[in-house]
Amino acid sequence: GAGVSQSPRYKVAKRGQDVALRCDPISGHVSLFWYQQALGQGPEFLTYFQNEAQLDKSGLPSDRFFAERPEGSVSTLKIQRTQQEDSAVYLCASSLARVFRTDTQYFGPGTRLTVL
Amino acid sequence: GQQVMQIPQYQHVQEGEDFTTYCNSSTTLSNIQWYKQRPGGHPVFLIQLVKSGEVKKQKRLTFQFGEAKKNSSLHITATQTTDVGTYFCAGLSGTASKLTFGTGTRLQVTL
Question: CATH number for the domain including B86?
Fold first, then answer.
């Protein structure tokens, strides 16, 4: 079937605006991850879901960042009152197994967020 | 917190030359994964290593996991222009749930 999809692919926001980024994981995948990738850097972990449960949100940089996956499928990453330092590519990845550490993560194409 | 460094940061080779990137973790890893990211693309999973001293091969790519499970390497034999991209290692340690990506090595291959 289809891979991980993300929307929008590009988002330009004015500083202070709220944004919502969507991730559609591969159907049936239990685990879902959000990463932030700054230009020229490796992806940095933000948060992890197992079905609808958010098991780890230790990577969220501030309380302006919020993620949800209410029905255990689609996930939304919301950033409130965006700042210029939030400009980055936001990557979503999903994996099949519950025991994620032994399983391949499949990445979506990312959403490139630019905050002016 | 856990840090994963890669060297070199950038390497430019001529097609046919070999290439190696090294990955070093500040903590012992339970497993390590390697990803390739083409310019403008997203990371694509290449392989996972779990056992101490493990070596895996994929065609021209050879992956190693160190005996102490704190370092790893990726070696490409006879590079091709299709190998261009950034190679990331990513590790899990202990009971941590998050995958920590390395700093990446950008490979440029010219004819």
Answer: 2.60.40.10
Minimal-distance CA residue of chain A relative to B5: A42
**10 Å Cβ neighbour count for B108?**
15
Number of domains present in the structure of chain B:
1
Question: Tens digit of pLDDT per residue, chain B (111 long)?
Answer: 778 999 999 999 999 999 999 999 999 998 899 999 999 899 999 999 999 999 999 999 999 999 999 999 999 999 999 999 999 999 987 666 678 999 999 999 999
Nearest by CB to B42, from A41, A55, A109: name it: A109
Residues of A within 8 A of B45 (CB-CB) are 104-106
Which residue of B lies nearest to A5 if distances are taken between CA atoms? B42
CB–CB of A104/B45 below 8 Å? yes
A96 phi/psi in degrees, rounded to 5: -75, -45
Range of the domain at B54: 4-110
> With contacts defined as CB-CB under 8 Å, which chain A residues touch B88?
42-43
Do B45 and A100 lie within an 8 Å CB cutoff?
Answer: no
